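Researcher: Let's try something more involved. This one mixes different molecule types, so please make sure each is placed in the same coordinate frame as the others.
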Amino acid sequence: MHKKNLLYAQSGGVTPVINATACGLIETARQNKAALGRVFAGKDGIIGILKEELIDTSKERKADIAALRHTPGGAFGSCRFKLGSADESKAHYARLIDVFKAHDIGYFFYNGGGDSADTANKVSQFGARLGFPVQCIGVPKTIDNDLPITDNCPGFGSVAKYVAVSIMEASLDVVSMASSSTRVFVLEVMGRHAGWIAAAGGLAQSKKGDPPHVILFPEILLDEKALLKKVDQAVKKHGYCSVVVSEGVRDQQGRFLADSGRRDAFGHAQLGGVAPVIANMISQSLGYKNHWAVSDYLQRSARHVASKTDVDQAYAMGKAAIQLALKGRTGVMPVVVRTADQPYRWKVGEAPLDKVANQEKMMPRRFISADGFGITAAARRYLEPLIRGEDYPPYDRRGLPKYVRLKNQLLAKKLPPFKP
Ligand code: F6P
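Model: All components are placed in one shared frame. Result:
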């Protein structure tokens, strides 16, 4: 039997557990050597595929592939690169198919968010049209947790845990000196247009009055007067106020408070820097001393405090992607299906890529408290299981995590150069 090779690529912003997905995928492919060829990976994502820079993962040691499960970042490199419609980006699709042909690729796995699901779907259609069918499987990933259909997205649970732990710990610091020093602490988190990560800050609370006292969501336009009132009330009642703010918070006109003016290849605004805006707003009006922090890439790479649920699901998505390939499926993505809240149970399901592509799942209004500054019991029920469990990386004698760096050996090129 002729065994076709597999091509895997990481796409978009990385997560603390995207390599756990790569690990699940490569280990499962290696267990199915009778049916599957070698696993290659795009260097720096789809850009590497276009440039015919393909990493041969069969050159990596078993132990190093296993170590991907606990290593953050994107082990093969990632990128944000937009492929347009089949007509707009004809040369790119044709080049992808040429690369697939040259290296006998029968399966393409694209590990990313909504934009990547769209690309994988188009590649699947384009290959069929050119008479070179490739099984294209999307593999879910995004810390933003905004993909439709799947109950949650691998990467989110660990970021959620980092944010909940961080605001809990920082609040213990603030409260220690609040009577004579800092009264307000503002933590900025990612999530772009969806407030899932900000909402996770609310998991730090175990009873009424616990921090964070205020959460600012992209889904709720900022009411400055109401915010100041809420902060002042918290300081008067508890002596201090902890705030979690999403980078995607917008003013009453719907404009981002922290739009840097820069756009990525998909036209997304580069956000970041809303924490100092909010902290300034508060200190100028209320006069309270403040500190602020932007968790930025720290939250996206904090594998040391990953959620076990998240790591398990990330691995399972990689494994399921291979199982779908073995079943002959194309244009699909494995998803997480929640079967029960308490006790939490989940299983792997399957979604068509065209239903996942280019959509963002926002926080439903019923997950946000009536005043717009907190989360509800329903949100807590949804979020809590996702941060559950610890999965610490091994540590070395220096006291640092033992993260793996792969050899990432490239295959010999067979085609003329191409400029993406
Ligand atoms: O991948 C999603 C995300 O992490 C967003 O939450 C954030 O706004 C964005 O990526 C940052 O992207 P980049 O690292 O490309 O600037």
